[in-house]
Amino acid sequence: MSSPYLLRRVGVGAAALGVIAAIVALIVAVFSSADGGASATPEVRTVSTTAGTLVGGESITITGAALDAVTHVTFGGVAASDVVIADNGTPTATVPPAVDFQPNTVAIEVMADTELVPASSFLDYTYEASTPIDKQMHYLLKHWEDYNDEEFGDLNSVGGDCANFVSQSLLMRGWEMTDEWYNYDAAADWSSAWGYVPAMENWLNSTPELGATQLSFNERDQVKVGDLVVFDWNDNDYLDHIQVVSSVENIDGETVIKMVGHNLDTDYRDLDETITVDHPGATGHFWSIP
Q1: Going by DSSP bridges, is the β-strand pair 254-261/266-270 parallel, antiparallel, or unpaired?
Q2: Nearest CA-CA partner of 265 in 176, 145, 160
Q3: Which CATH class is domain 43-128?
Q4: At what angle do helices 132-143 and 162-173 cross, to 10 degrees?
Q5: For 105-118, how does the pLDDT look when each residue is reduced to its tens digit (9 = 90+)?
Q6: Average pLDDT of the segment spanning 208-221
Q7: d(CA 105, CA 278)
Q8: CB distance 261 to 162 below 8 Å
Q9: pTM passes above 0.70
């Protein structure tokens, strides 16, 4: 017959072993999670910033578990640039511009190759028109096709509306009308510096307090969204056209610039195509706007 004393000893031993096993399992789980080991499940928990400008460019940090395999991040389906994984496995990403520079709230998605990394809660990002350049670009992409002629008129009938449209955008950016640069009462009274490309060029050159800096087409790596592009179609020292930079991208080491403007009414017109296909041999330069 078994001894009650022996049974009690066996029972106590089994309970102790169970407790020890549970403690060991807990320690392994904690250390595996802390080290971001293979047993940790990838998960996004927070992003450092949930709102920003229409033109983008802000850097956000993504926190969570086992995120060292993140390859790209999207904002409303638009890929962020410069996705970098820090030494501690934390990803950062540069926010892309809002689509057509329009205010919106979009979903943030974090991807590891083709797999969506699950998030502990819904993550979104709000684009707001909060800076002067935001207001300029928001206006341009809103009216590149839908002219705001009730307020500023349409100068196509007197040679072209390109300078009129660019001037409107600078007004939205915070510039103020002056005795030399103005458009009153829907183009019933407008200055040549406002609506005529050569006169606008002379005005920019003679008004250094505006802070605009001229750059050659060879200096395009210094150009940014919101800057101006002036063209001489025939390379005869007579300026014909002006637009605003709407996109700057580095593609395979080359700076690709696109533009918004009137005559031709476009939202993302390619600079290189403009001076090689549309107007072969055309020259021009940029005005960098502070």
Answers
A1: antiparallel
A2: 145
A3: mainly beta
A4: 150
A5: 999 999 999 999 99
A6: 97
A7: 37
A8: yes
A9: yes
